[in-house]
Amino acid sequence: MSDQWQYQVRLYLADDFAEIARRNPDDPALASLPEVLEKHRTTMKCQFDAFADYVAEAEAQGIDGYPLYAWTKATIEDPVKRAKHFKSFALHIKGREVYSKEEADALEADLRPLVDGVRITRLSRHDTNPAHNPQPPEHFRKA
């Protein structure tokens, strides 16, 4: 993979723990997760909340400037997708949504042992390479 790409690590939490993390990411029920996040100066953002924030901002500012508005709104209104995105948390390092490979590697290395299938069900890494990022269906894109 080229050095030109940036990365994002995501955590997937079990239902009960996802709700806890959305309300209080420092809750002791999350075991050592808050310590790892603090070590890397990382915060969690629930994917559903990020999508809902995008929709709210688009509606407040005017949807013309938000090319993913229709797709994002449809996503958060779909009960299956809604449930999926409630469990998914993007990790932001030092306030950044994407970061260097070295930062992603270090964060992922410290998080991997916490994936226990009980609290944290899965860990994934995404990059900014457009070839790896699916585009919204054509009918959701602006003409």
Structural commentary:
There is one protein chain. This protein has a 4-stranded antiparallel sheet. The longest helix is centred in the middle third of the chain and has 15 residues, at 47-61. The mean pLDDT is 91. It is built from 6 helices and 4 strands. The chain has helices spanning 15-23, 33-39, 47-61, 69-77, 79-86, 101-111; strands at residues 7-13, 42-46, 88-93, 120-127. It has one domain (24-126). It has 143 residues and is of the alpha+beta class.
What layout of secondary structure does this protein have?
Elements: E1 7-13, H1 15-23, H2 33-39, E2 42-46, H3 47-61, H4 69-77, H5 79-86, E3 88-93, H6 101-111, E4 120-127
Antiparallel strand pairs: 1-3, 1-4, 2-3
Helix pairs in contact: 3-4
Number of domains: 1
| Strand and helix order | EHHEHHHEHE
- Mean pLDDT over all positions: 91
Query: Percent range for helical residues?
Result: 40-55%
Shape: globular
User: How many beta-strand runs?
Assistant: 4
Key terms:
143 residues, single chain, 4 strands, alpha+beta, four-stranded antiparallel β-sheet
Task: Give me a quick take on this structure.
The protein has 143 residues and is α+β, with helices and mostly antiparallel strands. It is built from six helices and four strands; from the N terminus they run βααβαααβαβ.
